[in-house]
Amino acid sequence: MILKEFYNEKKNAIETEFNSDALTVHLYSDAVFKTSIEKPVVMFKYDNISWETSSEKNYKADVSFCLYLVMPIGSALSPNYEKVFEIAQRIDKSILSVNNNNTLIDTNSTFKVKEKQCTNEYDYWSKNDYFIWEIAYKTTLIENSLKKKYILFNNGLSNEELEELGYNLTSDIIEINPNQVEGNVDLSANI
Fold first, then answer.
1. What span, in angstroms and rounded, lies between the C-alpha atoms of 3 and 118?
2. What domain of life (predicted)?
3. Which of 14, 43, 48, 141 has the smallest number of CB atoms closer than 10 Å to its CB?
4. Which phi and psi angles does 107 have, rounded to 5°?
């Protein structure tokens, strides 16, 4: 599915930008706040996905997503939360990079919408335990699964005669048009 492929593409881009030991990247989960973290955590979360689907099996999704950068709890005297700006800049570089191998991703449309420092508005964890930086993006994902389709003019031949000539009439890529083609048509040509 295109959403999973997009997530994996961006996760790999972030992990490539950083050492795999420098931070952890995964989908958003509140479970991360139940234990202490030792290194920065980047959580990917899809916010809104609006699909447009056509009859030709083209799928286009306007997607908004966020990355939450959760900084580890430092010592009480000197938490180094200022590193979030450097890390966020490197995350931007990897997310906005057009060097991906996935043809389903519209590489010209991913852009940053906003950044902000998050505060806890819920009861999942203690309010002051974590420093969280949110970066919001929008993009367009396009998936094409176009089928080849051929129109076969049978010129009065029966289905059996067409199959003897080598046509596979059970294929979903052939549509039989019963109309006659004017002029001389050589049906014995190899396909």
1. 25
2. Bacteria
3. 48
4. -70, -15
